[in-house]
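We close this part of the discussion by returning to an individual protein. The sequence in question and its structure tokens are set out directly beneath this paragraph:
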Amino acid sequence: AHTPIDAFFRSLAQHSDGRSIGIVLSGSASDGALGVRDIKGVGGITMAQDPATAKYDSMPRAAIATGCVDLILAPEQIGLELARLGQDRYRRPEPVRSTEDDLPDPNGVQLERVFHFLRAASGVDFSQYKLPTIRRRLQRRIALQKMPRLDDYLQRLERDPAEAKNLYRDLLIHVTSFFRDPESFEAMKQTVFPPIISEAKGQRPIRIWVPGCATGEEAYSVAIALLESLDGDGQSTAIQVFATDVSDDAVGKARQGVYPESIAVDVSPDRLRQCFVKVDGHYRVSKLVRDSCIFARQDLTRDPPFSKLDLIVCRNVLIYLGPRLQRKLMNVFHYALKPNGFLIVGGTESAGSQTEFFALADKRFKIYTKRAGLARSDFDVPAMPKSPAQPSRMTSSRSTARVSDVHSDVTRLLVGRYSPPCVLVDRDFQIVQTRGETGPFLELASGDASLDLLKMAREGLLDGLRTALQEARKTLRPARREGLLIKSAGAPREVDVQVLPFGEPADGTHFLVLFESPVSQTAPEKPMRGAKRAVPDDLRIVRMQQELSTSRDYLQTIIHDMEAANEELQSANEEILSSNEELQSTNEELDTAKEELQSTNEELNTVNEELNARNDELSLVNSDLINLLTAVPTPIVIVSEDLKIRRFTPQAERVLNLIPTDIGRPLGDLKPNLDAPDLAEVTRQVIESVTARELESHDRSGRNYNVRIRPYKNQENRIDGAVLSFAEVEEPSRDNADALRQFIHALANAISAGVLILGEDLRVHAANETLLAMLGGGSGASLSGRALQELAGRQWDNAVLLESLEDLRINGKPFAGVRLELSTPRQRSIRIDGARLPGTPARLPLLVLTVLDAG
């Protein structure tokens, strides 16, 4: 097919990017329909002439049917619109923008409002899409709406929800074609399909997912390529191609599978013949290919994926998504694929940072295989940005941060100057936080680093600290130990320890340990002049040593008990950890099962949606067929290949004596009002020979019918039965019949060659004088009514002649050059040609033989 407009538009889209404008004017066929899609795909503007003003409206209508035409205008309006777009600052090669009207919106406030309107209209969050593409599409839409500033367009979105839907349609990229990049499909057939087919072995379906399928060309191309690779095994190996897109309109067009004639540029003649059916100037994908593809709406960023897939073909989708969504989709694809499954992305795309999950199988055509490993099946939706109606919290957040900093400074000042040093520990005495100067009381123990408070206590502090902590943990009341003598910096130092529990036991009790120095140390008093010490130092030391010895014995017993209890707790803890690991494993299995159920549910929803769409289509076709058959005044009967009645019109009930319950009965079992005993046999011959036949018959009331029997062909051009129509033939009046008979006799006598006129029963109706002379004289009346075989002493009883006449009578096939040897009145050789009189009324001669002397 010669489609220069498509080639020109595609070249324009490649070289002019978003500044291109494509216009389809009056013309025949569908050239330009594919090109406008490419122009709109790169952000250009498309127009079409209003079909009502076009002399030839095929080209404009084909372009409009793609859904990619922005403006439908009369020719004079197209000129005005071109002039206006030429002055638009967003359509120039180097747009000149002022700071006030700058569309890129560096702070993102206006784009946030645009995203909000889009979410309300479509439910799709575009905030994670690549912003350059969003801005180009937004510029394009502003230019079409004839608005000077983005603020004006935002006001339009606010008061007109329909405009948000139009912007949503413009943002969706639907640039696709059949077998785009043909070499990649050949690589697919050589690298991807053979191992998939070998693994399936006809025992399970081959499952493929084509996300971002647009209007279906990519999905149908993959299905066709796979069927070609199966090489005749397509009937035994089931194929499931799940094709999804976020656009309802695109999915609806994909389900129909109807495309303009111009796809012949991308599809080879062999594929067009084998996989497409031409219908009303369009190509429709064959039923075998359509049944292999299941189309459904799906938002890749939100909806659960399919599972246990052999192949994912996601070409030229990732380039429109931000890095966060790309990483998310790579995880989703890894989860959805079977072990050793394949992933194919576009030529400008890659697996990105997820190379630990995918191995490169073909660098040129970006074919990856799934690596063994567990990807994080994160199907959660990114948090929605705030709506434009919500005030920005940036300022308040900064103010809160500044107040928090001030509070922290105040806390540090108070702790450092007035509060005693302290540490916060959990129930296991592990340090959580420290406040103040704790160095004189705690130090890191030698060996492995540990935050255990008891291991970090300095010499002399451990026993009193341990008993205080245990008492506080047991009673959940404050505990205090005084007069603990520790050695810090080589000198003894007295310290009091206080343990304060706080927090609910259910949430985990914590303990605050305060290290307080006695007042005598912090503020020593000067002894009065002449005063004596109340207690001698020696007595004081002896008392302290006795108390210390008693405490050590008591604490040693407690330590042994605690160590035993600690061992038991350690054993119980190990058992709990083991149980926890088992529970964690069970939980992971449940999560995996849940995700598989989600994927299966999504698949079932997709199949159900496809079945509902096909049921609606079948219901519509069935209703059209019923109304059509009811409105047709001709009796019509449709039979299946095994001659069982499939449908019939109400008018056929009288002719064939049918009732509604006769549907499904064999045609030969009927007792029709029509005199046609061999009707079933003739119908079988029509189906077997794929040749139409006609019969003459009449009913019991004397009405004559012309019965036409034609083969029934389905969409795949396969014979699947026959169609019988019964046209009533009006009986001519006697006067008209006599006049017609006289006219035929006169015409025969006017011809110089011999003429013999026969009836349907091969009996003579008339013969001209030339033929009578060839037969040895006589009159026409003497021959009238005689059978052809009886002429000239049965010399006309010739097998070749009779077979040719039978074929002429039944199938209407004329013949010529049948030779016959006659011996009366003299030896001669004659040549006989035969034909049927067209449109002859019933009971009048039908066949005409011309006889020439062959020498």
In short: The longest strand covers residues 491-502. The first helix runs from residue 4 to 16. Residues 93-102, 377-404, 520-534 have pLDDT under 50 and may be disordered. Residues 445 and 523 are 32 Å apart (CA to CA).
